[in-house]
Amino acid sequence: MSELFASDILADQHIIITGGGTGLGRHMAERCASLGATVTIGGRREEPLNETVAAVRDTGGKAEGISMNVREAETVESFLAEAEERSGPITRLINNAAANFLSPSHTLSPNGFDAIVKTNLYGSFFCTHGCGTRWIERGTPGVVLSIATTYAETGSAFVLPSAVSKAGIVTMTKSLAAEWGTYGIRLNCIAPGPFPTKGAWSRLVPDPSIAEMMKKRVPLGRFGEPHELTNLVVFMLSDLSSYLSGANIVLDGGEVLASGGQFNDFIKQDREGVLAMFEMMRAAAKA
Ligand code: HXC
What we know:
Strand order of the largest sheet: 3-2-1-4-5-6-7
Number of domains: 1
Low-confidence stretches: none
Structural class: alpha/beta
CATH architecture: 3-Layer(aba) Sandwich
Strand content: 5-15%
Shape: globular
Bound molecules: hexanoyl-coenzyme A
Radius of gyration: 21 Å
Number of helices: 11
CATH class: Alpha Beta
CATH superfamily: NAD(P)-binding Rossmann-like Domain
């Protein structure tokens, strides 16, 4: 893939990426670092953090990894302080760390609900609050990008804690975009549709036949690819999007809208057959 952006578009940026050691977070870390940013990635497990940092440094990028748990306010604060000690003032934040599992809602335990909501919503709040406080005190601008999900708007069966916490993230983003705009702070969300990763798929996609079924829901007929997400991430972190704030951009190949229209199920069927059926109906109506 040839690079779309100027090779120094993120130079001078110190970007925090939670959950940056694995999956899409790792792709974001590698792409941002390749465009000049210094990235600090946070996560619970040291091993993936070390692997990602090594991969970034191997290609000449600047990265630090710090183990942390976004669910704990105090740990987040010391993570941000340590990140600044190592690499200077933070200028961008990506709230990427997330937890999820499939479960009937009526059997969820309080701890199960907590594990997801604390990771997704509290974690995003702690990080956003920590960065925002620093930027406001210093009088410097900043950008927060949070990874939501398409079902934050529609709700979804079997992932209740994820749905409510991601909806909270979207609302936090809109609220703070209004409150913090005066300080030059922009906050936005991306709502990705299906982008396969080991972490998400092992918890949310029980077998390959379900993956095929999920693919059929997407008008573009395929899952998203990491560079398609990071293209948008770079745009939203950079000054190319300097007037964008409070937005939640859906990146799902058309999946959500296609699942709402009353006649959209026809798109999942063989197109020739569907068109032939329409012709038969037309002929019958004329007869
Ligand atoms: C019901 C469950 C459960 C399950 C755990 N619990 N798994 N309940 N069904 N499948 C309950 C446990 O019984 C426990 O409650 C509580 O949750 C906490 O579980 P622990 O294992 O003790 O906690 P912890 O080690 O912190 O693990 C948290 C986790 C784990 C969420 C369960 O999976 C995790 O850390 N995940 C992070 C990575 C991740 O989930 N990635 C996927 C994100 S993808 P009790 O009452 O027994 O103590 C994503 C994409 C969405 O969000 C869009 C897709 C298209």
